[in-house]
Amino acid sequence: MKPEVLRIEKEINADPIKIFRAWLNAEDFALWFLSGEGIEIESVIMDPRPGGKFIINMELDGKILPHEGEYITIDEPNKLVFTWRSHATDNKDTLVTITFEEIKDIISKSGKVGKQKTLVTLVHEELTSEIQVKMHNHGWTNILEGLDQWINSGK
């Protein structure tokens, strides 16, 4: 079966450095990394360096669902690449690449400059079925929405 690729984009009103760093601070990460209703973060352990590992223990209905991987690339504030393995990937490694692209301010005719924005693009590769794509599309979409809400709540 041909590996599937999922791509999700989200504009967030914040600078790329702030958004990038939210992915690598375990304490902050646990506050916004929520993939759907009823899912909580039980614990997060991170070693944010190339070759470092992470484990995110999500909790659903009293059951712990570990999500783990290894950082491959940490290029602040441009790109983050890591492996991703969980029950939803049949416990096989997949690959996630996240890029953070500053959206340049557009100045209106009145001279007003809009808020700083970043285009966050998440690409999840090596998924093996359409159901994996659908599950991860739902999860990553909620996660990026949670990141946006957390970043813009003044935290």
Automatic annotation (TrEMBL):
Residues 14-149 form the Activator of Hsp90 ATPase homologue 1/2-like C-terminal domain. Pfam families: AHSA1 (PF08327). InterPro entries: ASHA1/2-like_C (IPR013538), START-like_dom_sf (IPR023393). This is SRPBCC domain-containing protein. It comes from Leptospira brenneri. Belongs to the AHA1 family. The lineage of its organism: Bacteria, Pseudomonadati, Spirochaetota, Spirochaetia, Leptospirales.
